[in-house]
Structure formats: structure tokens, C-alpha cells
Amino acid sequence: MSEMKRISFIGAGSMAEAMIAGLLQHEHVKKQHVTITNRTNDERLEYFRSEYGVNATRDEKQLIEQTDVIVLAMKPKDLAEGVAGIKQYVHEQQLVISLLAGVSTKSIACLLGRNVPIVRAMPNTSAAIGRSATAIAKGEYATDDHLSFAAQLFETVGIVSVVNENLLHAVTGLSGSGPAYVYYLVESMEKAAEQIGIEGPVAKDLILQTLIGAAEMLKQSPKHPAVLRKEVTSPGGTTEAGIQKLETYHFQEAMVECIKRAADRSKELGTAIEEEILTKRG
User: Same structural domain for residues 150 and 29?
Assistant: First the structure.
């Protein structure tokens, strides 16, 4: 980053921790320039103090007035309550970065009551090991410089793609929720391994290396996934027999509908929050 910034996190969950760990590891911010708060969990705040050496406070005035960047990392349902306590201290020279699934920059600006620059981001939980796939989009009052700063921030925990905000619901369904789909697949493979006589560490090692190897092949090869699949699938062989069984259960159709449903749910959550905001304003 071009210059050190003071960053405040509202919300002390796993995503806030992943970002703080990445920022400090890459020395993009000094620990004394990071402050974090949450609603009620004192033990969690003490953990951040001892583990990362960052500041923790419930003084909302101090939290916001002494910062350059505000990261909204609470649960979407807690947005209105979380913003209510800080909005009187927020000003338009600050940057707000939102990690809230489904919540538009317009809704956040409306709650804050001013034309503050907002960048919306959708990372995933692989940020905890520096392997997130994060998409970011700028709101109405954010500049390209704000977007560039946010990109550099999220590059400390993985890769970053810049998209239009209207695509972030789709991103949520695809990569935001994506790790859970892979974990669900691994659960199924572990159950199958047990049923065919391979248990414990041996099964886990084989499954994980298979996933890692396949992902690396996809990353390095210019070939389409369908081509790579067909290269492993000999006519009349074992892989073909397995794929045919997946087709019987409509595996691809299920995955497509899974991702579409997650994207739709992101839209539903965003709409519900927007309606709540309009109701309160009315």
C-alpha cells in the first residue's frame, strides 16, 4: 500500500481475524494502527489484544474518529445496530469496506446518512490461510484509488477480482460459499472411502492430495475442465463407471442449482435489509 492507514474493524469473527493476520504478516499496517470491536464478547477482544497486539475498544467515538478505514465485518443482520452507534462520527474522508453478504453499498450509505466512499467485498473463509478468492466492487462515491487500496488489502489474504456491484450476489453463491461445497464433497468422499474399506488418515491423505492435484492441473493447464475429465475417463473403465453414476444422480445439475440458490439467497438477504432500512426511515 502506498501509505500506512489506520484501520478499524467492527466485528471480530473469523474473516476479521484472517484480514488482520494477513495485513500484519505482510507489514501493510502496524499493529498499533489496527483497532477492533464487537458487540458483547470481551473474551474475543482480549484474544485479539494478546494474539495480534492490536487495539480493542468499545469506545465508538474513539474507534471511528481515529481511523482512516472502517471495515464492516459483523453479521448482515447486525448492520443497522452496528452502524447506529458510529454514524455520527463517520465522515466522507474515510473509506468504508463492507464484508456483508447481500448488502448493497447504497443501503450502507443510506444507514450512514452521508456520501461516504464504500467498497463492497466478498472474500471467503480461505482467507484464514491466505488463499481467499475475493471479489470487490466500488459504490457510488468510491474512486479508483479507493478500489486500488481495497484490492491491495485483500491481496494480503488471497487473489482479488474487481467486478460490478450487481455481480456480487453471483460471486457470493459461487466463491463466497464455494469452500463449503468442496468440504461437502470431501465429506462424501470420506464416507465412500470408509464403505470401501479405506479409513482414517490414509483416506484423508488420498482425498486431499487428489483435490490439490486436480486444482493445480486446472490452474496450470490451458485445457477446459471437460477435456481434462475426458482424458482421465477411458471407455468402459472405472472412471467412466463412476461418472455415469454421478450423472444418474444429476450431479452437475445439482451443483448448478446449488450455486444459483445461494446467489438468490444473497439477493433475498439484501432485499430484506433494504426493506428494513426503508421502513425505519419511513
Answer: yes
Same domain, 156 and 240: no
End-to-end CA distance of the chain: 41
Please check whether residue 45 lies inside any domain of the structure.
yes
Cell 473509506 locates to: 95
* CB-based contacts of 23, cutoff 8 Å, min separation 6: 7, 29, 34, 153, 156
What secondary structure letter does DSSP report for 13? S
Q: What is the pLDDT of residues 116-166, one digit of tens each?
A: 999 999 999 899 888 999 999 999 999 999 999 999 999 989 999 999 999
Proportion of the chain above pLDDT 70, given as a percent? 97
Domain boundary among 108, 132, 165: 165
User: Cell 426493506 maps to which residue?
Assistant: 275
Tell me which of 112, 138, 165 is where a domain ends. 165
pLDDT in tens, 220-273: 999 999 999 999 999 999 999 999 999 999 999 999 999 999 999 999 988 988
Note whether residue 260 is domain-resident.
no
Return the bridge partners of 122, or none: 135
Question: Which pairs count as long-range contacts for 197-202, CB under 8 Å and 24+ apart, including other chains?
Answer: none
Domain range for residue 239? 178-249
* pTM for the full predicted model: 0.90
